[in-house]
Queue: 3 jobs
Job 1
Amino acid sequence: MKGLYIHIPFCAKKCEYCDFVSYSGMESRIDEYLDALSAEAAQRGGARVDTVFIGGGTPTILNAEQITRLCGIVRNNFELSSGAEWTAEANPGTVTDRKIYAMLKGGINRISAGVQSFNDRELRAAGRIHDAETAYNTVISLVKNGFRNISIDLMASLPYQTPETFAESLRTAAELPLEHVSVYSLIIEEGTPIKEKYDEGIYSEPDEDTDRELYSYTKSFLESRGFYRYEISNYARHGYESKHNMLYWTCGEYIGLGAAAHSYTGGERYFNTSDINRYMSGSFSDGERERLTKRDMMGEFMMLGLRMTRGVMADEFLKRFGCGMTDVFGAEIKKHVSAGLLEYDGKVCRLTERGLDIANTVMCDFI
Ligand code: SF4
């Protein structure tokens, strides 16, 4: 399995919590950016890929013609395997029927929509450009126009959110024809407007117990609606797990194109420049590379693999690294099995329900 990631670093407006590489007010430079992307794809293309993920930023800030052009850049420079999953992130408030048509015609077959909440007060506090009705109608339009594989992102622990309003958002999500739901907790990053508001006491810090309660409710509610939890923050109907993310969690290889994208091939991580002007001038990379040692790779294989509820298979570990999982990580596994955070039956090592709640504590022991 090999993946392709393309970063579109443009947004209509920065969300209050966002520290991703994305810029607002630069839409006039999208064509120039696509020129650079096309040049980078021509340099680094040629591979056969099983998944494509267009993320950002806001890919759907591109107009229909630009979306068509972007899809052409992918198809002209990469060979897509049969049945390839091709996802684009979509921001409600930027999606039109013409753009949906351009995405479908271009080959995109999965949408990941950044809904975050179906509560207008929470959406305003998060600085989203859309309201709940727009988010709902965006999903309906996507389905009406032909998309059959739609995921939405929701956020837990947003300002003003209560367990009741969170549950209401989940119930609204369940009314929609979705195949996949991701639920992430708000992370208050340094340097973001939302961090200042927390520092000034305008919002009160989310507490960990409530956050866990929301996760536990999410699991039981979504399971009652036909989804299963296949990763710490991700729920899918069977067969609709995100193949692209599974590729990341199984340490698969991927090529990243665009400003701030990174790639992982041949045991090496390769970083593109985050400076969009530099990228558009044709200097795609700052030359930063990281070669992983075998020990690094084994640690990452465990850390990422444990994110998935299916866990890490001992025979896959052996096949990949030529040594046994317990020969390398016997002490760590034993420690967390004793604490009730991991289970290991000789074939599979996975987080228990309790371990999933405090996954970071367990995972950081492997790297
Ligand atoms: S839409 Fe996404 S990438 Fe853009 S500012 Fe908001 S969170 Fe950041």
Note: The chain has two domains: 2-248, 295-302+310-366.
Job 2
Amino acid sequence: MSPTHTAAVAAPDRLPRPAAVDTRQIVWAYAVTVGVYHALALLALLPWCFSWTGVILAVGGVYVFGGLGINLCFHRLLTHRGLVCPKWLEYGFAILGVCCMQDTPARWVAVHRRHHEHSDRQDDPHSPLAGFLWGHVGWMLVKNGDLSRLGIYDRYAKDILRDPFYRRLERTLLYPTIVIASWLVFFGAGFGARLIGGGTPGQAVQFGTSLLVWGVFFRIVAVWHITWSVNSLSHLFGYQNYATGEKSRNNWLVAILTSGEGWHNNHHADPRAASHGHRWWEIDLIYGFVKLLEAVGLAKDVCRPNRRLARAKAGK
Ligand SMILES: [Zn+2]
Ligand SMILES: [Zn+2]
């Protein structure tokens, strides 16, 4: 171990919830949204709402909307500044992220930066050491005074809110407009394609609905659980390359579902690195895409893994 590095204090196995949490105060905006979208996603079970095109859009959408919008943009680009893209492209990715309904970029960034600051300590907003369901979803459904919008924005998201586009997402109806537009695009594409293909209006409504249910509702809920799994599963199950002092784990299942975000222990060891896979077999599709962007001149200042920092955290 380097003489300048002191071993991180291990996180406890169980944690209380943050002291500022009041479980009697439901955050209704989140609770209703989560409940309603799960109900809408269940429509996918109805044969009338089924189409193979919808299923393909749902699976592809997990990687396009979740992978590029949340994992690449909200997480690696905005939260950790692991790369820089032209603004038009960054905003394009951010719009994909907004379509995932994980709140605004500023909010997402602020909560996640707080998670890194207090990982698996009581002030961590969503440590699964306070309960699996708490870390997965419960934390956002009840009031946590630590996460009052202005407080955390001031502390963790000033850089994001200096950008007029992200400010507009906070202060205008742009955010819900993007979400509703994405509904219309999916329904309208299916409706129009079936009509043009010679279908009846009834068939067009059925096909448009199938794309909406699978390509939007089901996909949003799937991406929610996948993102939430990084917070829950990747802090409980898997292996550690680095003694980071909290419970972050490299979890291959989460890595597959998130195109690389499941190498979460590597990420906690070196948060700025745009690459989350640190061993040759820790496949990170998002980083592969970043390298592609870099090769064609659409990404620069890509932050590579800092082997020295990672080794120090590993105590070597
Ligand atoms: Zn984490
Ligand atoms: Zn992070």
Note: The CA atoms of residues 102 and 108 lie 7 Å apart.
Job 3
Amino acid sequence: MSEKKVRHILALSGGKDSSALAVYMKDKVPEMEYVFCDTGDELQETYDYLDKLEFYLRKKITRINSDRPFSHYLKLYRGVLPDSRTRWCTRMLKIKPYELFVGDDEVVSYVGIRADEPYRTGYISTKPGVRAVYPFRENNIRKADVFRILEESGLGVPAYYEWRSRSGCYFCFFQQRIEWVNLLERHPDLFKKAMEYEKNDPLTGERFTWVEGESLQELSMPHRVAQIKEQHEMRQAQMKQDRSNLSLGKIFESEEDDGEMPCLMCHL
Ligand code: SF4
């Protein structure tokens, strides 16, 4: 009986690191399968970028969809929005569909964690047949290299980097307040949709909001928008000053993800 073939899979998030890894691995593993777990609530910029990447790779990127949409699971979780602690959205909309796709096969899973992220961990897969490999870590590829790889490929970074720092759903709770403001200004329809998911529990008075302590309705008030922009500009100016003596490479390395680590399946 012939031995079962080992599958090689690179899961794309629509973010810069996994995209750069796809570029980096092009032609190195001819049987590589490229996949993207599509929640159905990703930004149009992400879908456009994946199309460009697919063209560059000259290989199909398999879109894996969840059996049910976000709204179905939200009902199941009784209207409690996901947050960085529970992350049920990643589990139900990304991980579960990915594991179904993998099945019980033997898989080498290519993960784009960089050499300058020694602290970074996260879900790869607990399935016994899945073995994760880290080509960027193994080859000392750092953040500045990722930008270079994407630049040299002609792809550049996804267009949403103009106003948002991470890939993922338009309503992702990992967004900073300034990114919510940017969503409001660039995609008012999506901002409105995100707003509609927020609720007050009439029994307990508990508020379910995407941003801690503030509803999107409150965040979108003109005086609040102006305040968030002003605070962001002040932070930017301070960071610029702090970095004036740093080389470009060091600047990239200093821009590490702030706060809690986002999910690998969504933001790599
Ligand atoms: S991108 Fe954000 S909201 Fe979407 S599944 Fe991932 S963690 Fe959840």
Note: Residues 39, 82, 87, 89-90, 93-94, 168-169, 172, 174, 263, 266 surround iron/sulfur cluster (CB under 6 Å).
